[in-house]
User: Fold this.
Amino acid sequence: MFAVSIGPRTTSCRLRYAFLCHHHHLSVRLHHLHQQPHQQPSLSFQIRSVRKQIDMAAQGEYGVVKSKTGRDSYEEALAALSSLITKRSRADKSNSGDRFELVFDYLKLLDLEEDILKMKVIHVAGTKGKGSTCAFTESILRNYGFRTGLFTSPHLIDVRERFRLDGADISEEKFLGYFWWCYNRLKERTNEEIPMPTYFRFLALLAFKIFAAEKVDAAILEVGLGGKFDATNAVQKPVVCGISSLGYDHMEILGDTLGKIAGEKAGIFKVGVPAFTVPQPDEAMRVLEAKASELDVNLVVEQPLTARLLSGQKLGLDGEHQYLNAGLAVSLASTWLQQIGKLEVPSRTQMGILPEQFIKGLATTSLQGRAQVVPDQFTESRTSGDLVFYLDGAHSPESMEACAKWFSFAVKGDNQSESSEHLVNGSAASSHEKWFGETCQQILLFNCMSVRDPNLLLPHLRNTCAKYGVHFKKALFVPNMSVYHKVGTAADLPENDPQVDLSWQFTLQKVWESLVQSERGNAEGEEDRGKDGDSSGNSEVFTSLPMAIKWLRDNVHESSSATRFQVLVAGSLHLVGDVLRLIRK
Assistant:
């Protein structure tokens, strides 16, 4: 389609050859400017202008090299991106900081320094809820007519999910153009002293490039990990900052106390930039307030949004905990609208109900893997049972409780007379109907990273569900299909790996079995466990996720038409993404 195709092996020579005539014309003009400075009242400005034209001549319409689209090119981009993933353990203490100053070198190499200074950024950190907060905020601003850019992590199915323009994932064509522009330029300009950026840093740089080239009015950035040393913290003058709920997570990197974790998150505070947070544990709040005071930051604590303010509408993201995230988002969006949009927005205390754009924005927000309900379309049959997946990427003790509460209310509403269509955020919403059958069985499909403590996660999940009268018939433990050293797509998910190490999954199963036995007051010894189906009956370990999905579907087909299987998928956003890939294939 295009005259020039730039792939991962493109060199600067090939690029210059493609635009030789235009480049030569501009180069002559640039030389002419240097030779006759007395005729140019703004010489430095004109030289920069001409250089920018040369750069743009080697770029496409969006300020990037135009490249052929297609799966081959896209897979090449994913392979190049995968090469930036470091092999170091997440628990490697030497990760702290990790030469954070390099991020500014990369911005200089990509000529993004001025662009990032002009960018109107909303910056959000936190342990849980920061992605949802960012999604709510973006949706509000978009409903006011502003062009938005949203950067979140991780992605669940496709890396392009991380970059949203006006509420939609960036197109494959644009992604490829921006990707190779950044990747090739960094490949040419980095060296031993300034090596290629690591995976997440590159993605953050790519987001900066995309949002600058696309001329977004508002850039909403979710911190990847921590705050102080996160690549998104290259933004030196955001419009407003937010800190969502804090808790214990990534302690191997951020610290083993809430105070230390809060200190890392507060690293996004900037001198004089307003900030908002939600009610926090005392230890965390003291640290946030101290950091805010030190930097002359006006830190405001916002309460959860009330149903009254929404005028009868429901939030686009389900779960009671989302009202807390929505409340934070309202304050972030209001501040941006007042400072940048120059709009008069009343404070929440002055509102009877929220403005129409706020309500519509909050009600139409979508974010995969957060309190998402997706029916399995492969088991639709009048002669068999029914299978529905309830997906939530909860992976901390606090988020496990919120997830369990949401799941409990969701399955209860699902099994009663009221329609639960509002619970469905997945693309299969239209096929998810209220269940009129006689029997429902709740099953847990779980995995988490080995740096997390299942003795904290699983009891919070199980006990909270039990508190609301929901009891799991069985728990299934599986390894993730997506791997941390490779960025892939649905096409490359392995069906089964007989060599996979299941020691962590058996550890998870052991914790679950001990919970079951302690509830029953049964002090009997550990049950013998084997592979794929040889278990105690309370839980099973599968060698792969496809095997677990097959087991679920087989059970549905063998059951009566009066049975609905309700499967909670939790513990890892990677697992949630893997499940979505499989059931949507």
